[in-house]
Amino acid sequence: MRAQRVWNVNGAASIGQIQSKLDDLNKRLSQLESQHPESWKIDELKSSALSLSREIDDIRCAEATAALRELLRK
Fold first, then answer.
1. Where along the chain do its domains lie?
2. Cβ(10)–Cβ(59) below 8 Å
3. What is the pTM (predicted TM-score) of this model?
4. First CA to last CA distance, the chain
5. How far is 55 from 32, CA to CA, in rounded Å?
6. Which of 17, 20, 15 has its CA nearest to residue 63?
7. Would you give the DSSP letter of residue 21?
């Protein structure tokens, strides 16, 4: 059984903050790729971008699950 993250945050604000970090990271990635396409930093930034994307997905899924749970409870 896979472990599941439990988010204990305000989803909307948290997603906005993470999305902002992801946008900044993507800008840096684009600049770095155009300047130094073989740079090892690109792989690190891509890895960080994927992690942030997963965090956003996890929060959205948790919010959707909570909303569905509330609907089913009624």
1. 11-73
2. no
3. 0.65
4. 29
5. 24
6. 15
7. H
